[in-house]
Amino acid sequence: MDSITLEDYLKKNGSAQSGILAKSNLIDKLEVYGFVNACQDKDMYNEVYAGLSLNGIVNKEPKSQIILSNHIYQVTTHYCGKDITREGMAIPIYQKLVVSESEGRYNVEDINIPSLARKQLYRKIKSRPGKGVTVRDNDLNKAGFPPCISAIDGKAILAAPVGHVQILDKDGVIKSIGENIMAICRYLHAETGTMCYTQYNLYEVYVDDLH
Length: 211
Prior knowledge:
By secondary structure, the protein is mainly beta. It is built from 4 helices and 16 strands. The strands form 5 sheets. Strands 2-8-12-13 form a 4-stranded antiparallel beta sheet, covered by helices on one side. Strands 3-4-14-15 form a 4-stranded antiparallel beta sheet, with no helix packed on it. A 3-stranded antiparallel beta sheet has the order 5-6-7, with no helix packed on it.
């Protein structure tokens, strides 16, 4: 049976979920444990070199990482001005990806948007879902929100085009919209039998093509 990247599998089949068996160039047997969403690489570099918080970033090679049922907890070392600091962050793990066949509108209160994680207005909206945080387009513009998010009836609403990737939790609820999606994979260490975890971009792992 032929193999294709997980990215191509998602495009071809319209969905992908945890439990898929996969492999990489270095590891022959992986299981996709789940998916995480992170900000794009360009956003990461801007934040790191500006000495800003690393919220929204998933590190492929953290010095310290703990995998829980629904989260990764990573401790990352980075520069803050001239000083080196350590920061811990919990990142949600999701169970399924679905390619949307239609345009979508999502209340920012209800979804995780990694690229906005360090913005004060976003944190305010997320801290008080459904409790009367009213926003206007002027507020969104001042906060540096992207043009795809606008104010409708006092709520920040994200408009997503046809083909956007919905990221679902174990209950099938849409929790995020794809920005930089990575697969959390696990494998058994060949010598010790220890369960190990690692992160891959979707184009870095291969799965069987089901035709």
